Predict the 3D structure of the following.
Amino acid sequence: MKLKAVAIYLVVSLCLSLHAWHSASSSLKQLLMTELPTLTDASLRNSLDEQQELNRISKQLVTTLQFVAVDNILPIKLIERLQVTQLQLLKVTERNSYDSALKWTFNGQKIAMQISTKADFKLVNIALVSLLLTFVFWKSQLVLNRLCTLISKDRDMTKHSNSIDAKNNLQHDCAAFKLLSSKTKLPADELKAICEKGDVKMLSTNQLHWFIIAINNDLSIESALTVAKQPDSLVFDLENQCVIIHGLHIRLAKTPLFYYYWYAQREVNHLPPYLNPPLNKSDMESAQQLSKLMSKYKGHQKAIRDLQEGGLKGKTLDQNRNKIKAELQKVLGELADEYLFISERDIKTARYKYRLNAQGKSITI
Amino acid sequence: MQGRNSLLVSKYLLTFIVFSIAILGLSKHQVKDITIGQLYVQQCDVVNAKGDQDFNVYLPVNLRVSELAKQLCEDTLKGSIYSRVSISWQPRESLTSDLIISQQFNLMMHRAHAITGLLPNWKDFYLQSISLPSYETFWFSHNKNISVTPDYFTNKRIGLLADKKSASGYLMPMSQITQAGVTLTKEQLHLYPNREVLIDDFLREKIDLMPSTMHIQQLMEWPVEKRLLITEPNAQLSWFISNNTPQNLSTALTVAVKEYQTKLFSGLPRTTYAKPKVTTL
């Protein structure tokens, strides 16, 4: 904000100074162009060497016009006076064609004037006027912004019947609005209320996505805010048959939940990625662990029996991981990926091994 | 989204326009009236001046004015009642009878007949001092054997000065050919605002004949058979000193103008025009 104000101030003062100089200088040129043709004509009439006489006139003019007083429309002057630093009158010949607009004719002979000026700026006055203009500019922006909001509100009211249009035309400074309006089905006025909350404005983009997911899962705005502000975390609540991801409770079917838990447990215990057992040889040891867990938390009898009799099979693991994936994606959308599995192929056996993506999150079992 | 954008655009546009007008309006400066004064005047300040009067000089042409000014300011009028010298070569038509009566000029170089024309009793106001050595005016031509006859002048392009009070540039040649019965058509007669342009055009052969004194180098070297003396009427330039100029200065002034005259007729200037070299195949 400060930087912007300083930039505006500088641009304004630069424009003021340049235009003051330019306008004064063109006013001088204009005045000279009305006076000089007659005056030089009278002097050239009895001259024997025109260019010599023009040189003499030029010198005389530089002396006469050394300091030229200027006036401003305002009582406050930005330039004290103009100095003519160089002035030369020249006969225009075929060899030198001056591209100057300052030309007149003496007996078919074109005479050109070259002039350069210097301005004595009144720096204090320029600074004051620039400051004033910058201040007015700043204030007018605020007024205009308010006016724009009023106009949009008015439009919003008239177009209330079409809620999409209403959303689109809503005008405010909340960056989240666009995202919210496209990803949620809230009515426009409620969205606006949300956006104007200071807490919502403070959310990062990532937090905002969590906020949206929470809203879409029918949480109140306050609870959604709490969810958004949670750190990345995965908590298992096997008693209530659910996982709490990023503060958001998600119910899962019993069997997939146990497999999910089992993978998480491996992560917590820093075990390597679990290699899918080969088709002909199921893993009895892991099956033992899983069936114990399931019996403890009232898992399905069929699942327990299958594990005890047939061991842990690659196919069962694949099925359950897919179920977890589907369930989480249903609730979390794209964000689910952060809480799913990472796979890689084992070079020796050419089978896949899987582990839970636990990077940067706390897992509570 | 479109509504919002157009609102934004109109907001910025409005701001830009209003502030541009404000900046341009608030910083529009104008030059107060300037007084340039006449440019046909060369001025200088007199050394050790004892008074504050102006010493004005009139010359019909601005030849070597700065040298005359220097002479007057630093020598002739040094320590006199005059503080400032102004030498003017204003157009002849602006030299009026009133200026003679009011003795505007302390020193004038002019022709007696011209002053008489302005004020017959000019002797009540001015004293005729020395005259310039009589110098001759010629017809200059690009061809040999000039003769002032109607036959010779037929279809010739004649250049004269537009200033009809100029003796050598208009009066003398015009009266000579009129007496000889020559009448010039509009197409034949070319009038020039000053001598430089006239001589330049002659040297470029844009005109066939022109009257001039031999005051520039190219004309001094002109072949004798390609020029013809104009004798009529004999009018000499003289110096005139106003009666209100202190008597004790007149001797010094005469010395000064003599010196100036000598300079005028020595080392004459060349025109800027250089004749292209003719190569023969």
Notes: The longest helix of chain B spans residues 2-26.
